[in-house]
Every structure is written in C-alpha cells, then in structure tokens.
Amino acid sequence: MSLNVVAASVFIGLFLFVTWVGFMAARWRKADLNVLHEWGLGGRRFGTVVTWFLLGGDLYTAYTFIAVPALIYGAGAMGFFAVPYTIMIYPILFLVFPRLWIVAREKGHVTAADYVRDRFGSRLLALAVALTGLVATMPYIALQLVGMEVVIGALGFPTEGFTGHLPLIIAFIILAAFTYTSGLRAPALIAVVKDMLIFITIFAAIVIIPAKLGGYGAIFDAVPKSKYLLAPPSGNSLGSYSAFITLALGSAMALFLYPHSMTGILSASSDNVIRRNAAALSAYSFVLGLIALLGYMAIAAGVENNPFHVDGFERYGASYAVPALFLDMFPDWFTGVAFAAVAIGALVPAAIMSIACANLFTRNLYKEYWRPNCSDAEEAQVAKIVSLVVKVGAVFFILAIPQAYAIQLQLLGGIWIIQLLPPILLGLFTKRFNAQALLLGWAVGTALGTYMAATRGFVSSIYPLEIFGVTVPGYAALYSVLVNFLVAAALSPVFDRLAGRAKSQER
Amino acid sequence: MGKEGRKGWLSRHWPRFLLIIPFALVAWVPAYNRVEPTLAGIPFFYWYQLAAILMGAVVVMSVHLLEKRIRRKGSGGPDDDPSGVAGDIL
After folding, report:
1. Which of A320, A434, A463, A501 is least surrounded by Cβ atoms within 10 Å, i.e. has the fewest?
2. Alpha helices per DSSP H over A281-431
3. What's chain A's average pLDDT?
4. Could you state, in order of their start, the residue ranges of all structural domains in chain A?
5. Residues of B numbered 23-82 whose beta carbons fall under 8 angstroms of chain A's beta carbons: which are they?
6. Long-range contacts of A254-258 (CB under 8 A, 24+ apart)
7. What's the CA angle centered on A228, arms A226 and A229, to 5 degrees?
8. Which residues in chain B have their CB less than 8 angstroms from residue A88's CB?
9. What confidence score (pLDDT) does residue A338 get?
C-alpha cells in the first residue's frame, strides 16, 4: 500500500484541528481544574446539548463503528443485535440514572464506587466495584486503538516496525496531553466535532454507496441468503434466537455500569438533562443501525476481490471491510474526512475512559487506602497523572500483546461489569439488600461468568445453557448476573439476622 | 414507603409503565426474523428494527413529557422545572 496523500492530508488537518480544540477546552466554562469534580466531571455543568454530544461520543465508539459492520460483514444478521441493544438502553437510562445523579450531586460522588461506599457503608464492596470498573475499562481503551490503527493503516502509512507504530503513538501523546490539561472538557468539545463528522460521513455513505451499487435491493441480493436472517431454532436448541436477544439485553444492562458511561452521566447539569437525552440519544442508535448495513454494502461492492485491499484484509481481517468500502466509493478527500471521523471517534471515548479510570483510582483506591486526608489539589493532581499512566498502559497493551487478547478481555469485561448491577441498581430502589450478601453475589457472578466464557475458550460469550433438556444458548453475562442477584437476595436476610445477633450480644 | 406514598408514586409515575413497550418491540425474535415485507429492497428484519429505534425514542419522550405535565399540575404553581434555563440546555 502506498500513502494516499490527499486523504492523509485531510486526515492530519482535521486531527490538528481537534488537538487545538482539546487544549482550548481548558478555558471553556473556566473553573479551577485543580479540583477533581471540575477536571473529572466538567463541574457537573453540561446541559442537554453538550451531554448529547458527550454521551453520543462516549458510547458509540470508533470500535463500534468498525466492529459492528465487520460482524455484519462476516456473520450477517447476528451482528444486528446491536440495534435491539441500543433500543433497550434508553428505558433503563431513563428509569435508573436520574436517581443516581441526584444522590451523587447531593453527596459529591464522582464514581459509582463512591456511591456504593456511602450507600452500604462497606469498604470491601466499594473496592470490588472500583476494581471491576478499572479491569473492565482498560481493555476497552486498548480496543479504541484498534479502530484507529485500522484507518491509519488504510491511509497507507507504513505499518511495519517502530515507524509503523509511530502515528498511533503520536496520536496518543496528543490525547494524553490535552486530557491532562483540560480534563472532561476536552472530550466534551471534541465530541461535537466528532459526532458531526460521523453524521456527515454516514449520511453521505447511505446516499452515495447504494446509488453506486444499484439500490438497497441490489445490495441485499448480493448478500448470501444464509446471512440474511437468524438461523431458526432446530432440534432441542433455541439456537441463534436466544443468543441474539440475550446478547442485546445483557449488553444493554451492562452499558451504563461502565465507568465511562457513569462519568458522562454524572457530568450532566440536571436529572432532566439525562431524561431528555434518554430520548434524544436514539438518533445515534439509528445511525449505528445504518453503519451496521455498511457491512452488507462492503459485500455487495466486492471489496474483498479488489487486489488493492489484499494486504489490509490480511492484516486486519473483517475490520478492514468498512475502510476498504470507503476507499473504493468515496473521493480521496472525503475518505480523509471519514477516516478522521473514526480516529477522532476513538479519541473521545479513550479520553473519557481514562478520566473515569483516573477518578476511580484516585477516589476509591488512593484516597481510600493511602491518603485519606489528601487535599483537593493533590487528589486532582493524582487523577491527572493516573490518566496518563492508563493511556501509556493501553498503548503498550496494543503494541506488545496480540490483538486477539484485547478483544477477549473486552468480552470478559462485559461479563464482569454487569455484576455491578445488583449493588448499584438495588441500592437505589430498596433498602433490603445487605452489603456482605451483595459482595458474595458479585463474587459468585464474576466467577460463574468467567467460567462460562472459559468453557467457550474465551472466544465467545454465548453459553449453551441446558434447561429441562432444551438448550438455550445465551449471553453469559446475563446468566451469571441472574445468579448474582439470586445469591444476594437469598443471603441478605441471613446476613441481616447474623448482624442483628452480633449486635445484641455486644450489649 | 407507606400506603399513601405508594399511591402518590403511582399517580405521579404511571407513565413509566409505558417503558415496557421498547422492550416488547424487540423481545420476540421470531416475530421479525423474516424477509417479507421488504421496504425499498430492505428485508423486514432490518427495517423493522430501525423503525423500532424511532418508536422507542417516541415512547421515552412521551413518558418524560407526561411526567412533566403531572408534576406541573401537582405543584399547582408555575413551572418549577428549570428547563429553559440556559445552563440546562447547553
């Protein structure tokens, strides 16, 4: 592959522009950035519009834009689970998170672990929440790099050796620098640029590409019939039906438990901002649905038969389908715009994720266990440094370790993060649950979910559960969190009674 | 929560039960795992789910607006909702 000069110039130009935006963000709604909730939550002052861009940029990541159409390209209808998934997240957002926002605002919570610590008075449960959040988010940051790596490769930059990694390293140094100086304000402002680029790219794609390929009818005619629909259940197994819907439901339940989602939500300026966004964010879901269809357009365009793309597919697999499609269909300058949208789309969530990790580490490990009396300025300073460390870790991870591990870890991350559902959700709606019982439920759920993934060799999170002789293949996260919940519910009265007895003996 | 409180909750938050609709729209996979009827060449499986996104958004918006109306009626006075304040929008 040779360097595509026009596309690369547009790409670099847009990248420099958002770098400038990132540094300028420090002056936007100026406040003392040496306080954690100013640096790490933007002072909780983002209104409906900024929150819409921020959460949109945060949740619909570059990895999604590359991986979802790649899944459709490779596996067909199953990849469309992302659509019911994004339908189900918004009722959950509407019901649960305005309430959490109110509590967090009142008590000054910055992380989910802050909330759990305060609500249940258990340091151990809070530690479990903080560690789960950290471990689940790290591989997610690394995966954002994968999206970026694919488009950098597709632009024709050299990909071998140290010079091959250079563009990625430079991009991450820039990212680290503006996150350090501007905190959450940087991704919030950059998200506006990113989302507009994505919208422009996608609307161009769904108009221009079908026109070139002879309409949607022709596109679907080119797709092998076996990929068209989910395979109906056969024999004693519910097959892909149960896999499809449990994957959607489980992913929806897990999404807002991720630290970066929590950071985005807590930075809103009111509970009504969250409610309004629960409706308005659906616009991104619609775009994601359209992006998914790009996978079929890539099949119809026959990108794999183009000798020009052989290298790319060899290196990146199905993830190369969409970049290849853009290269074939768009004029060079617009390919630059589209690729910049993907790369900047990686910067925004990567920045928010690293801030979320920094908040967690500082609040729930550093302050909790090392320096309970540290000053506000020290707290903010530690968070800034941790955000740097996290990003260095992510770059190292992606350069030193095979990509397949990052994907597997991200898959496990989904299973681990969903285990926080009982402590966070139940704490908001009932007082009946006991901290020790929730902790045990968390441990059992995490172990069981990990075991289920292990039986599939960590390549799939679909576990074939046997119920009364019927096989119900389903998302391991959903199965394991059910067990987690049952354990917590069953043991809560037991632990409450034990605690009551201990208290009466003390007297 | 006492009996009074529960009744009060229901009269203020009954629209929330509508939030079951977005789940119901996609819960039963066999209902939409089909090709016909196609829309502009797009099989039903795909265009139905895209349409369900829009229906889900309408439901969530309706719940928000209904609850807001109930709140305003309840408080009797003018809108105590801070929306419209610049900080709330941007």
Report:
1. A501
2. 282-301, 310-316, 321-329, 332-360, 376-400, 403-417, 421, 427-429
3. 91
4. 5-402
5. 23, 25-27, 29-30, 33-35, 38, 40-43, 45-46, 49-50, 52-54, 56-61, 63-64, 81-82
6. A254/A414, A254/A417, A254/A418, A254/A421, A254/A477, A255/A59, A255/A89, A256/A89, A256/A92, A256/A93, A256/A96, A256/A97, A257/A112, A257/A417, A257/A418, A257/A420, A257/A421, A257/A424, A258/A133, A258/A136, A258/A137, A258/A140, A258/A356, A258/A417
7. 95
8. 22-23, 26
9. 93
CB A259 within 8 A of CB A112: yes
Give this prediction's pTM: 0.92
Which of A60, A78, A85, A216 would you mutate first to test chain B, the one with the most B CBs within 10 A? A216
Beta bridge partners of B83: B85
Angstrom distance (rounded) from CA A84 to CA A248:
6
Question: Are the C-beta atoms of A220 and B41 separated by less than 8 Å?
Answer: yes
Look at residue A149 in the predicted model and tell me its pLDDT.
86
* CATH 1.20.1730.10 assigned to A5-402: yes
Domain layout of chain B by residue ranges: 21-77
CA distance B42 to chain A (A): 6
Q: Give me the count of residues in chain A.
A: 507
Comparing CB atoms, the residue among B49, B59, B81 nearest residue A80 is: B49
Tell me the two tokens of residue A306. 């183009």
pLDDT tier at A80 (50, 70, 90 boundaries)? very high
